[in-house]
Design brief:
The chain is α/β, with parallel strands linked by helices and 196 residues long. The protein folds into two domains: 2-114, no CATH class; 121-194. It has helices at residues 2-22, 26-31, 35-53, 60-92, 98-114; strands spanning 121-122, 127-128, 134-135, 147-149, 152-153, 160-165, 171-179, 183-184, 186-194. Helix 1 (2-22) runs antiparallel to helix 3 and helix 3 (35-53) runs antiparallel to helix 4. It starts with a helix and ends with a strand.
Length: 196
């Protein structure tokens, strides 16, 4: 039953996201050159909806396999959009997508508030992909590490924020991952900055 509720909330969140990207944030989608990605996500969602509607008329095992495949494709398209938004935000500052990120955070908070089976994720328990050595180019070095909770990638600016220390020149720098919305706590990781 909990797995069904998780899927239901994920499905609802994806539908809300698609609707927002096609209406409220359509100008931002065009600016970020995400139209093809949004179309891909919409097509995957439509295919998922069709398969979901047919699940009771087909053999359960076959339907589940097909649904899983479609869900994986949809999740991959969503992650691609998130990666592009993360990159754009990192390059242009948090304020460029602040309204979109805040709206998405409110949606996540709403679903978490109404689904009591979802406790806040503890950032101290996340796994962080290794950050390779960064070359110093005269400016503070900003990295966007990949953060995973139970093998699922967390979305930067949605689930966590970053702050940096000692990143103004060669040496050992640190980045602190601060949980937000559905996450709590913080985790500090180090990375090296080297001369060119």
């Amino acid at each position: 039953m909990n797995k069904y509720k998780d899927n239901f909330f994920t499905l609802a969140a994806v539908k809300i996201l698609i609707a927002d990207l096609q209406t409220t944030y359509q100008p931002a989608v065009v600016t970020l050159n995400l139209t093809a990605w949004v179309n891909e996500l919409t097509a995957a969602q439509n295919e998922f909806d069709s398969l979901f509607a047919l699940r009771n008329t087909e053999q359960a095992a076959k339907t589940q396999e097909r649904l899983r495949d479609v869900r994986k494709q949809e999740d991959a398209a969503y992650r691609d959009i998130v990666d592009r938004i993360d990159a754009y935000t990192l390059m242009n500052g948090d304020q460029t997508c602040a309204v979109f990120i805040n709206d998405l955070n409110r949606e996540i908070a709403y679903f978490n508030e109404h689904d009591h089976h979802h406790a806040k994720k503890d950032i101290e328990k996340v796994t962080v992909a290794d950050v390779p050595a960064q070359i110093y180019g005269g400016e503070p070095v900003i990295v966007l590490p990949e953060v995973f909770y139970e093998e699922k990638k967390l979305v930067f600016s949605v689930y966590y924020e970053l702050s940096y220390r000692d990143n103004n020149g060669p040496g050992t720098a640190s980045v602190t991952i601060h949980g937000k919305v559905a996450c709590k706590g913080k985790k500090i990781i180090s990375f090296n900055i080297i001369r060119n």
